Fold each of these.
Amino acid sequence: MPHHNFIITPHSIHTPTAIVHTEYDPTTLDPVPSPAWTRFVCISDTHARSFDVPPGDVLLHSGDLTSRGTVAEFRKTVDWLCGLPHKVKIIIAGNHDITLHEGWYDKNPLRWHRDVGKQDRAAILQLLKGPRAVASGLVYLESEEHVFQVKDGGRTWSVYGSPWSPYFCNWAFNYKPEDGPALIAKFPKTDILLTHGPAHHILDRTNHGDLPGCPALRARLPDLRPRIHVAGHIHEGRGAYVHAWTGTGGEGEGRGEGEGKEGEGEAPRVQNDNWYRDSDSDSDLDEDDEDEGDGEEDEHADEAEDEGEREGENELGVTPLPHPPPPTPVDRTVFVNAATFPSGRHAWRGVRVKGLHACHGVLVEDREERMKVPFGGPGFQAVVVDLLD
Ligand SMILES: [Zn+2]
C-alpha cells in the first residue's frame, strides 16, 4: 500500500485569552503557553468512528456519538472515549443518537431498528454514566449543567449541554422553530456551552448554501457569552471563530466569509469557512480592528503617564488622584463547529503518494492526487482551544 501524506496547512487564531488550532501537525502542535491555560479538545459528529485526537485537559463532544443509536455503536464510542487521556470528557447526544430521546424513540423504535430490534436505553445509559464512564471522567449531559475542575486547586469550569437542534426530518431531539426561544431561554450562563446544532449564521452553512442554525440561540448569545461554544451537526460548516464582545456589542477577531462589524448587542455573523486566515493583516476588517485597539491602548498609556507625574508631585503636598480603573477585560467567545465527519468541498484534498509509480510507462517518484479525508483527518481534525484560566 502506498503511504498517503495529506498536505497540512497549519492554522491558528491567537488572542490574549484564547488560542485556537484548527489545522495542525499533531506531532508539532504547540503546547499551552503556560500552566495558567487549560486545553480543550473539541470533537463532534463522530458517528461511531474513532481516530487520533491530541491530548489535553478536557475533551468536549457536541453530539452524534453514533449513526443510529444502537447499543453496539454506543459501546464502540464509549470504549474509544474512555481510553482517551483527557481528565474530563463532556459529551452530549445529537439527532442521530435516537435511543437517548426518551419517549420519542419508544413511539416507533422499529422505524429505525427493524433489523436489530428495539434497543435498550438503560444499557446505553449504563455505558454513558456507569462506573467505568465515571472512572474515566466521562460526563454525559442532557439539557443539564455540570461544574468541574481539572487542576488541583485550580479554577472550576461550568458547562451546559443540550442535544437539541432545529427540526429536520423528524430526527431525535428536534424542535420546531416556534419552540426554540422557550427551550433556549432555559440555558444558564456558563463558561462552556455545548449544543448539537450551531447558532444561525455561525459556522452553519450547508453545501446548498442554507444557514439552518438556530436563530433563537443566536439571539441569546449576547446574554450567555460563554468562553467557548461548541456545536457540530452541519458537518460541512466545520471551523472556528473568536468573537470579542466589547461593551454591549461585539467585534470579530479572525476573519470569516461574510463577516462584518456588528451592531450593539448582536451576535456575530460568521458563515462557515474553515479556510479563512485571520492572521492576514491586509484585510479591511483587521486594519479597522487594529486601529481601534491601538487607540484604546494609547489612551491608557497616557493615563498611566499622567499618574506617574502626579505621584512625582506627591512630596509637594498634592494628594494623588485615584488610580484609573484597569481596562475592562474583553469577553471573548470561541465558536467551534467541531464536526469530524468529512463533508462538503473540504472533504477531498491533495496527498503526496510516496514511492515509485509507473506513469505512462515511465517510473516517477512521489506524486500528488486528491483523496477523501478520513474521519478526524486534515480539515476535520479535533479543534484545539486553549483558554487562559
Ligand atoms: Zn452528524
Note: Residues 248-264, 272-313 have pLDDT under 50 and may be disordered.
Amino acid sequence: MNWRKVRIFVFTLLALCLIPATRYYQIDEPLLKLLRGSNHIDPLSLHLSGEFVENNLGTEQDADGSVTVRMIAQQYLFVPHCILVPAGVPVHLKITSADAVHSLTLNGTNYAVKTLPGTVSLAELQFPRTGDYKTVCREFCGAGHYAMRSEFKVVPRDQFPALRAGERGACVLQ
Ligand SMILES: [Cu+2]
C-alpha cells in the first residue's frame, strides 16, 4: 500500500469536509433550509429581516378574532418582556431563540414551550381567565438563567386594544 497516496487522500477528504464550516451562508444555510423546511430560521439575522424583526414582535390580531404572538428568547430575556393577550381566544405563539436552548414556561398553566436556535416553535395557547401569568425559563441556559423572566397579561376580550405595528410589544392598556 502506498502510504503517501493514502495520506494525500485523507487530507483532501478532510479539507473538503471543512469547506462547509467556513461557508455557512453559501452552503450550510441553504442546505438547512431545504432539509428543515419553513420552520427553519437563521438565528443570526433574526433582528435584521423576516418575521421576527422588532416591529413584528408581540401580539398581532388576526382576522378571525384570534391573536398571534411572536417572541424571541435570548440570554437572558424574553422579547418582548410583557405580552398583552385577550382572554378566551386562541393564541398562536411563535417563538424562536437567538442563541441557546430555552423553555418558556407559564406559571399557573400547563404551557411550556421549548425554543431552539434555528427553529420556530409553534404553540396553541388559550387563557380562560384574566390575570398576570409570570413566565420563567425552565431550561438552564447560562449564568443569567435565573433572571430570565417575563409576563403574559391577559385582559378581558372587550378591553383588548387595537394594536398598531410598533405597539405590539407594549403591555399597557390605552
Ligand atoms: Cu434559561
Note: The first strand starts at residue 58 and ends at 61.
